[in-house]
Structure formats: C-alpha cells, structure tokens
Specification:
- The chain is α/β, with parallel strands linked by helices.
- 45% of the residues lie in helices and 6% in strands.
- The protein has 14 helices and 5 strands.
- A 5-stranded mixed sheet has the order 2-1-3-5-4.
- Helix 4 packs parallel to helix 8 and helix 11 runs antiparallel to helix 12.
- The protein is globular.
- The chain starts with a helix and ends in a 7-residue tail after the last helix.
- The N terminus is likely disordered.
C-alpha cells in the first residue's frame, strides 16, 4: 500500500506552490469525487473479469505462497478460510458512505467464488470489521503500511495494548473467525477505496503480498484498482469444497492444483522470476533502512536488477519511483523530479499506452 501514498506525497512535495488541500475539513464524513474517472482499456470492471491464461501448476504455486506465507516473514502452518458465512461492516461513521463501494466488491467476489458466503452488513460489528485509527499511531506500529488487518475483533485502543498485539500472530489461530481492518482516520477517498479493495479481499484468505504478481492486487504495487481475474480465481479455488480448513501446505497445494486443472486456463505458464528475490531484498532495504547511504546503494542495485533481461516490465519504473521517495526524504527536489521523470519514461517504454501503471 505504500506505493500509492508515496507517489502522491512526492507530487505534493515537488509543487512550487502546493494547492490548498481538498481534504482540509477533518470532520467530513462524505467521500469527495474530484474528477471523472479516466478511461483506460482494461481498467476497472474489465480488470475484474479478464481471463487468466496460466497453467494449473504455476497458479497452484502462487496459491501456496499467498496462503502459507506472510509479507512480514511469518509462516502460516495451516490453510485458513471462512467456514461460516462472513459478514463485513464499515464500523466508523466516516466509512459508512463507502457502503455502495463495498457492496460492489462483495458482488464481484460472490460471483467469482460461489463457494464463499460473504455479505456486507450494517452495524458496528461483523466478522470482518473496518475501523478508523489515527494515522500517526498506525505509522508507529506499521510505518510501511497504509492499512492493515489482524485476526481478532478489537478496537484500536485494545489493539495498542501489549496483550492484544502479542496475540495477533497468524500462526496462532486455527480458523478465520474475526478480523479487524484498520484504516487511517480521514484518509483521502482514493486511499480508503484502495484499503477496502485490498484488505477485504485478503481478509477472506490470501493474506500475503508477492512482488512478482504483476497481474494482482496482492503485491502492494497499486497497479490494479480492482481485484483482477487472477485474484478472483485464487478466491474461487480457495472456496472450492475440496480445500478444507486446516490443510497443511503440501495437502493444500495438491488440492488447489486439482481444482485449477478443471479451470480453462489455456496453455501458458507464469515464468519464475529469477531476479525477484534479490530485487525484493534491495527494495525492502531502500524502503526501510535508516542509513541513507545504504538506501541509495540498495536502490542502485534494484535499478540494475530491474534492467536485467527478463525482469518484469514495470519494475524499473517502480525502482525509480522508490528512488524519488528516498530523494524526497533527503530533501533533494532536483533528484525527486529526475527520478519521477525516469519512472514515467520507463513505464511508457515498457508498458502498453493505456496501462494502469
């Protein structure tokens, strides 16, 4: 989720005369629509229903990494899915006006995964409850996440307590029963919508983010607005009756591949990203290290890896964008503009004219 926040921060920081914020009224409760949504081929609804053209084997591998690993390194020992009907609520008053948006998401998911009984509901509590929390306090706990969720039903005050935070490990639960999604209070509408789309979808089971998934919202690149055809296929597979709650990784992989072999996936396969691990490590250092020298060295490594033959086409633009973020933190506006320009050019050269990237 950091990517979207970072780019808007950078653009705001580079302006000679920053425009007056349209989000200045802190007591507002209605989302603001500033402009008409731009049209791109494959944007919005088209992304949500696009066909998926990979082999059962390659998607089963992705399924395993999404279900049994977390982006912060914790392993999940057993398959976790909702066995009971799952309800979703927007608990905080400022989130209530996004109910039609949530309803749209739930409809798409239900159509794609008929084995999943999920619905939006009113009221302050549900199986999956979305709550606002102070952004500054969220940053103290998870500085690189715009929003996040935990496998318990707690308020922000309860979560901040030591006992609740100690209990928040995914390896300690045996089934999905209650989940809380925390979203920064009075976030911009595009941030709230992004949090609803990604966190709700992941709260239904596939909780990991993988950078090499170019065609998914499960990667923190913010390259896709809605869950893609791949994401919906992962949920459809998870909620097939043969995927039982509690299966271990090997058992689930065999069942997932069997289910996927019955889907019309075509004859192509997702290639293994051989440079992905090194690229991921370099970008994580660039984003999280406190030493600017180490961050710059890591960025140069990421840029070099992104230029390697066979690298995913949007990686170079992503690396340059992260370099702009670091330059912004170093108060170097000239390099910010330079890196953002290179990011734009890299995307324009590597991707289709109407690519969401």
């Amino acid at each position: 989720m950091r990517a979207a926040f970072a780019i808007f921060s950078l653009l705001a920081g580079c302006a000679t005369t920053p425009p007056q914020s349209v989000y200045k009224e802190e007591s507002r409760s209605q989302p603001q629509s500033l402009t008409e949504r731009p049209f791109y081929s494959g944007y919005g609804e088209a992304i949500g229903v696009q066909p998926v053209h990979w082999t059962a084997r390659s998607i089963a591998r992705d399924f395993d990494r999404l279900m049994f690993q977390t982006e912060w390194g914790e392993s999940v020992p057993r398959l976790l899915k909702w066995e009971k009907p799952a309800t979703i609520s927007l608990s905080t008053p400022e989130l209530a006006s996004y109910r039609p948006f949530l309803d749209d998401l739930v409809t798409r998911i239900r159509n794609a995964a008929p084995g999943l009984d999920v619905s939006a509901t009113g009221g302050p509590n549900a199986d999956i409850t979305l709550r606002s929390a102070p952004r500054t306090e969220m940053d103290e706990i998870a500085a690189n996440a715009l929003c996040f969720f935990i496998p318990y039903d707690v308020t922000w005050a309860e979560f901040k307590s030591l006992d609740a935070r100690d209990a928040a490990g995914w390896s300690q639960i045996s089934k999905l029963d209650k989940i809380t999604v925390f979203i920064p209070a009075f976030a911009a509408p595009h941030e709230i919508r992004s949090c609803i789309l990604e966190e709700v979808t992941q709260a239904l089971g596939p909780g990991n983010d993988l950078r090499y998934l170019n065609d998914s919202i499960f990667n923190d690149d913010n390259a896709h607005v809605w869950p893609t055809g791949f994401d919906l296929l992962i949920l459809r597979t998870l909620y097939n009756d043969t995927l039982r709650n509690g299966l271990n990784s090997d058992e689930a992989a065999l069942e997932a591949r069997s289910v996927l072999e019955s889907e019309p996936l075509g004859g192509l396969t997702r290639t293994i990203d051989l440079i992905g691990s090194k690229y991921d490590t370099a970008l994580m250092i660039a984003e999280n290290e406190t030493d600017f020298v180490l961050r710059k060295q890591a960025l140069q490594a990421a840029i070099s890896l992104a230029k390697t033959q066979g690298a995913a086409p949007h990686r170079l633009g992503e690396a340059y964008k992260t370099a702009a973020f670091v330059a912004f933190e170093a108060n170097d506006p000239d390099r910010v503009v330079d890196y953002l320009s290179k990011a734009e050019l890299a995307h324009a050269r590597a991707l289709a004219a109407n690519s969401v990237h």
